[in-house]
Structure prediction request, 434 residues.
Amino acid sequence: MEHYYQPEIECASREEIIKIQNEKLVKQVRHVWDNVPYYRKKMEEKGVTPDDVKSIDDLYKLPFLSKDDLRESYPFGMMGVPQKDVVRIHSTSGTTGKRVVAFYNQHDIDLWEDCCARAIAAAGGTKEDVCQVSYGFGLFTGGAGLNGGSHKLGCMTVPTSSGNTDRQIMFLRDLNATIICCTPSYAAFLGESLKEMGLTPDEIPLKAGIFGAEAWSEEMRRDIEKTLGIKAYDIYGLTELSGPGVSFECSAQQGMHVNEDHFIAEIIDPDTEEVLPEGAVGELVFTAVDKEAFPMIRYRTHDVCSLTREPCSCGRTHVRMTRLMGRTDDMLIIRGVNVFPSQIETVLLNEGYAANYLILVDRVGTTDSFEIQVEMTPEMFTDNVGEVAERQKNLVEKLKSMLGLRAKVTLVAPKSIARSEGKAVRVIDKRKFF
Ligand code: DLL
Prediction:
């Protein structure tokens, strides 16, 4: 059963959505021109003025924004309202260069929390539910966003934040949490922990999980659904655009609906910057049409996916984006071959492994070395050398046929790869440091 939070918007006709977007875009371009000198300069350099933008059909005229722009304008250069009206900041978890600092006024917080409330409702959430928010709280947007969304929906909200697994499980069971929000890797870890404690899925009250902030595969979804006995929903977003809830999955689990009354999605060719037609795979670009304090126009996300407007069985009309296929900047080029970590994960999960792996890339002389360390599950763990060698050989072959590239596969003991409470670190590319 679907629980629409705002059916008049979520199920609006295409014409109605376009009308909303047209009006908001025209206003937003004027707002940015008047209040964000950094972006105004970019528009002037491209020879565009607000008068040139009369509808979403004129979007292509506007300049893109990139992470480099945000670094250059750090910290206040993209602020769109007087600082006295800003009520919050969040920041990305980026490990290189300057962090991105995003600003919010009360209006921005309200619209963001609405987006998150829609996501929880689409996962079946109502005010009857107990929603445990196990994303990190603080500068990261995961905790604050879903906490706010859960409040708006009227769920009893349990803001555990990430970590302290024993306490997470205690609250899950004692407070009868029916919905959990965390990264998919942490959900998988919770599943492992419950299993170790001898608990079966029927002994925990959860019915749904809202997982995002990092790439995960369909196979990983099935694993989590089985170990936790829930339906697992994908949620997408990024700090620059507010945080989680830019798009979310409904019960059809056929892609994530973009909240189109707030965000216009485009897919571009990352090299030529040409806008691609519906269905094409490319880089996702977003325009936030009504965010005021940190207004992003044509922001290049580096995330790779495609869009579809095929009708969805849930009744929502907003465009859907596919599960992310990778990032233009996470794509590894190993011995000249493009490799996305998600392809590796698909092979591993199909072969019965869990998503506990580490991809190690280095340069030895002039050649790239490419190793994948994979944890054996407790069930398959053995010290029989012949059996391990046979398993490794099988994985090398399966990976070769998926990637067209030979990797060294090393099977390691269960629990030997460090777990993460937030986003998992799965790639160590030492070549970057040469
Ligand atoms: O990760 C916001 C978020 C919090 C989303 C909680 C969902 C749930 P950032 O830290 O700025 O924001 O990272 C944004 O994370 O560009 C994607 O590459 C990746 N990402 C986010 N959601 C997904 C997802 C938050 N569902 C970056 N699948 C984005 C794959 C995701 N990758």
Summary: The chain has two domains: 7-328, 333-429. The pocket of DLL is lined by residues 92-93, 135, 141-142, 212-215, 234-239, 243-244, 301, 303, 324, 327 (CB under 6 Å). The longest strand covers residues 367-375. The radius of gyration is 22 Å.
